[in-house]
Structure formats: structure tokens, C-alpha cells
Amino acid sequence: MPDTAGPQVPPAFSRILPVARWEPVTLGESGAEVWRSTRHILKIQPHRHPAATSLADERERLRWLAGRVPVPTVLGYVTDSAQEYLAMERVPGIPMSHPDATLHAGRMADLLARALRGLHSLPARDCPFTMTLPVSLRLARERVEAGLVDESDFDPQRQGQTAVDVLVWLVNHRPQTEDIVVTHGDACLPNFIVQGEFVEGLIDVGRAGLADRHTDLALAVRSIRRNLGSKWVDPFLDTYGRELVDDTKLDYYAALDDLA
């Protein structure tokens, strides 16, 4: 059996997850309980409101992304009456937000820009997952109506507003066009694993799918400011391709993420 302080490993995983010493992973805001051993990752999540991302969503996206961009290998997925469980191989390396990575802030900004350009260059016609505004605004509305939005976690410019306020603004300021690419959906530094000079894995991809490229760029810019410093935003955007960036859309998709 795993360490008594570790996760409750479902019996169905007895063959794919050997006895190991597990430690909790507290980085990230997905809401799932995450554990890691030397070789494996186990995510555990209670069944949620339909507007929330499920581990089944992440499993399907990981399977599709495999071979296209570096992602963890799915080992198994099971569900019971209360929870769902996703087992994966652990990606070697550290998150871009790790202190040892942020010591090389310029390199992290460069690697993140290149990783997103690679992801966004995948043929959109091949992607079966849709997260365009008709979908994401509907999900946002459902989350607001279900009381799932944490208003205390809003970006500073929206502090003091209600979730309804933000939703109304999003509806009234919806962009007329979407620059559709294959997106990560939560493109912040903790979700990109690096080792040496390479991005070894994209993780937490439960919201990946077809959407405006600014879905990723807005979150990347915000994460760079928080983890690396504002001076690295411009180098990131320059490396990604400044001609592709719309500052108005950066603001819009940052607000949309506040309801995610």
C-alpha cells in the first residue's frame, strides 16, 4: 500500500501504480487533489457541476495532444460515485514558475513563447475540442449562476466587482472575430515543465481546444508578470510574434478567465 499519508489509490490502479512514496502537489489552481511519486502523477477530483472541467476532459485532451506536443502519458482513468481519478506518467523537470527556473527569467519567457507558437501552429481542423466564445461564455454563465466563481481571486482591475458584473461586461464587449488556433486553455507558467533548454511537458490541459490565441496569451502575460516580472512581457510577445497580438483581446480574455 502507498504511504498512509498519501492518496487513496483506487483498486483499479493497483497494476499501473506500484507501491510508492507519494507527496502532495500544492502548486496550481485546478481544484483537483494532486499527488506525485518518483515516476507517476495521480489526480483525484470530486464530481462537479457540469460547467466545471472534469478529469475525463483532461484525459481525452492528453490523448489527442500526445505525439503532437509533449504531454504526460495517460496510464488510466476511473470514476466512482463520488470521485474521478486520473493516473499519468510524471514529466521530468520543474515548472517554469519554480524558483530555479525563474532565475533564468529571459529564457523562460522565450521558451514559453516558443512552446505556445508550436501549440498554436497545430492544424486547427484536426482538433476535436471546441472552446470558442459561444462555448466559453456559456460555461462562464453556468458557473456564475451556480455560484462557482471565486470573486476574491479576480485580477486587481476587477476587484470589488461581482461575477455578474464581469459576465455582463464580457457579453457587451465580445470581440467581433476570433483568431482560432489550438490553445492550452490555462497557459500559465506552472503548467509548462522545463528541463535544461527544453519544454518537457504541457500539463493541466483540461481546457485545451479551439479558441482565440489570446485565450493563452492573456494568461501567459499575467503569469509572466506574477512569476518573472513585467519587464519580460514585451520580450515574450516579441518572440511569440507581436504582429499577432491584440492588446484589447488580452484584456478581454484575462477577464473571461476570472470566471473560469
Automatic annotation (TrEMBL):
Pfam families: APH
Aminoglycoside phosphotransferase domain ranges (all copies): 22-245
InterPro entries per UniProt: AGP_Transferase, Aminoglycoside_PTrfase, Kan/Strep_kinase, Kinase-like_dom_sf
Taxonomic superkingdom: Bacteria
UniProt keyword Nucleotide-binding, yes or no: yes
CDD domains (UniProt xref): APH
Alphabetical UniProt keywords: Antibiotic resistance, ATP-binding, Kinase, Nucleotide-binding, Transferase
NCBIfam families the record matches: APH_3p
Family in the record: Belongs to the aminoglycoside phosphotransferase family.
Name assigned to this protein: Aminoglycoside 3'-phosphotransferase
Organism: Deinococcus piscis
